[in-house]
Amino acid sequence: MSGFARSVIGMSNARETAARFFKTYADALLARDEKAIGGMYAVPSLILFPGTSVAVGDVAQTEQFFAASWSQYEGVESAEPRILVIAEAPGSLWVDVTWSYGGAARERFCYQLVERDGWQIAVLTPMDLP
């Protein structure tokens, strides 16, 4: 099998992996389940906002962040991720996700997922909406 054929097969699996991961993530968001979301972030992980970086040193930090931010999702009853796997390496995926709430694109992030006893978010970077 050529290297190109292997990479296409790998990318297909990467898309399936990302789709499953972000389906579970969306379900946790809609359930306002900060414990489930906290478990989806690697420790340590890194959140890169313009002008600031947040090093996440424990699960409780992620849980507290989401528990304090549920009000920004008030009235949101559906979360649709548009997923684009932009790169992959052994045990790591980079995924561009545009989140739509109520049928409109609202947020966009690049997530680096790492495989550690399942897939987890290691790096989160906000991006401009398309």
Would you mind describing this structure in some detail?
The structure is a single chain. The protein is of the alpha+beta class. The protein has a single domain (3-126), classed as Roll (Nuclear Transport Factor 2, Chain: A), CATH 3.10.450. It has 3 helices and 6 strands, in the order ααββαββββ. It has a 6-stranded mixed β-sheet with strand order 2-1-6-5-4-3, with helices on one face. A hairpin with a 2-residue loop joins β3 and β4. It is globular. Residues 1-9 have low confidence and may be disordered.
CATH topology: Nuclear Transport Factor 2, Chain: A
**CATH architecture level-2 label:** Roll
Question: What is the total domain count?
Answer: 1
State the end-to-end distance: 37 Å
Can you count the beta strands?
A: 6
Largest sheet: 6 strands, mixed
Radius of gyration: 15 Å
The parts where pLDDT drops under 50 for at least 5 residues are 1-9
The general outline is: globular
User: What kind of assembly state do the chains in view correspond to?
Assistant: single chain
Q: How would you spell out the order of helices and strands?
A: HHEEHEEEE
CATH classification class: Alpha Beta
Q: What is the count of helical runs? A: 3
Portion in beta strands? 35-45%
Structural class: alpha+beta
Mean pLDDT reading: 90
Helix fraction bin: 25-40%
